[in-house]
Amino acid sequence: MAFSVITASSASACTRQERREGKCPDAQAVANGGQVQLSAGRDTLTDGDTGSTNGDAGGGTGGGTATPPVNVAEEGVGGSHGGAAPAPAAPLPACPTCTAPIATSVSDLVGFSPQLPTQGMEPNGLAIVGLAANFVAEASAHVVSGTLLGNSAEVRFTPTAFRWDFGDGAGGTSANGGASWDDLGVPEFTDTDTSHIYTVRGDYVSSLSVEYSAEFRVGGSGWQSVTGTLAVAANPLPVVVRHVKSVLVAHDCIQNPAGIGC
């Protein structure tokens, strides 16, 4: 089973407003066992304090107390008395109560599992020694949706290989799930890409594993591939294998439904 990671990041291209609104998730996808795990981290900016607006910093109109003016003539500053001018006051900070914007980091982890494949066979649950039994699987491309950090998230699963273990030591792999004899337009017991011939009478269990490739996208971005595949097991299928013998009868099963072999 392949284990892989792929990361798609768009945070560096985000504007200040998009970062403030939390629209810049940094997403990655991991194919792990039978599941794709999407994780994302995001930085959210909160504006800092822009300072007091009540006029405290220098005699504004917002209710602060202004320093009263000085009559330089009365105090003898620069007037006829010839006193020395006082030293200028130190400048006030531009914004003594301001604070910097605050960055908050959040993360999320969500698992996405594909639909379980199913398998069947014809004849249904029965195989005849020396004749082909046709196995058919149901699995198709589909999209699983969810939410990641408040953004829409989707994973698209596509079946790429069907691996059978027929229970008698033999197996087979095909690129598709096969089709019924009727859909193929061929007679019963015809060999197909997904058929198997049992050579020994007995009771067996057929196992099927379907391999899926996966792609993901978050927040409406483009599809990105997840390296590797996921192996997902289908339902186990009991198979009864028997010999068939021919006997002569007086009537067929239409004429005598209760007859031997009907």
From TrEMBL:
Compositionally biased, Low complexity: which spans?
40-55
List the Gene3D superfamilies hit by this protein, alphabetically: Immunoglobulins
- SUPFAM superfamilies named among the record's database cross-references: PKD domain
Which InterPro entries does the entry link to?
A: Ig-like_fold, PKD_dom, PKD_dom_sf
Q: Which GO terms describe its biological process?
A: carbohydrate metabolic process
Domain named PKD: residues = 158-210
Q: Where is the composition biased (Gly residues)?
A: 56-65
Region Disordered, as annotated, extends over: 31-86
Record-given protein name: PKD domain-containing protein
* Species: Cryobacterium roopkundense
Q: What is the lineage of its organism?
A: Bacteria, Bacillati, Actinomycetota, Actinomycetes, Micrococcales
